[in-house]
Amino acid sequence: MEGSFTGGDEYQKHFLPRDYLATFYSFDSGPVPEAEMLKFNLECLHKTFGPGGLQGDTLIDIGSGPTIYQVLAACESFKDITLSDFTDRNREELEKWLKKEPGAYDWTPAVRFACELEGNSDRWWEKEEKLRAVVKRVLKCDANLGNPLAPVVLPPADCVLTLLAMECACCSLDAYRAALRNLASLLKPGGHLVTVVTLRLKSYMVGKRQFSCVPLEKEEVEQAVLDAGFDIEQLLHSPRSYTELLTRRH
């Protein structure tokens, strides 16, 4: 499997953010599985970071891709957010939205839905400005490194977030287990890891390109999280095989 797995070089050369966004985050295409995935994620994140949920000073999002929706809830409860991705193009796409540059992707429908969950659907533009103010940096990351943000070293964080990324970055179950330990190293003792994983997925398409995933079972994810030094505090499982885990580092 490792020989045919889509590696970092392939992502850097061939992963096109606009093709990815058009495939998975096209908001005018109706109730398709991709839209249901986004809704499930936003609802999970609202439960995790909403009133009475996680809060703190610093949050690191690993494998942000070209998307910002995953930190819409967290920007209300964390003061300093780091976005990160492996590819240059994805980081450029993030910077374009953060700086309100011409041609930046329109996340308004996702922002509106996040605000609806918070009971503030008519103040979505304030949410966008809040997020732009709280995101302090966009860094390169590689979850397979002992320090996933190398060469940058950040102070230990209160929370690490990673959505739909680890199963794409890791070529095997062993690599996935090692990557979770690497993410744990970014956290303070008692800090939280929040992760959403697509189960049993072997690959996905972006435009005409196929990208590999390591197919994971729910029990394998749970055991890997426990072995990385976390306690599972919350597990949400979607019938469409998405699993969100909220965990605390020992």
TrEMBL record:
GO terms for molecular function: S-adenosylmethionine-dependent methyltransferase activity. InterPro entries: NNMT/PNMT/TEMT_CS, NNMT_TEMT_trans, SAM-dep_methyltransferase, SAM-dependent_MTases_sf. It comes from the Eukaryota. GO terms for biological process: methylation. S-adenosyl-L-methionine binds at residues 20, 25, 63-64, 69, 85, 90, 142-143. The gene is INMT. Belongs to the class I-like SAM-binding methyltransferase superfamily. NNMT/PNMT/TEMT family. The keyword RNA-binding does not apply. This is Indolethylamine N-methyltransferase. The keyword Acyltransferase does not apply. Keywords: Methyltransferase, S-adenosyl-L-methionine, Transferase.
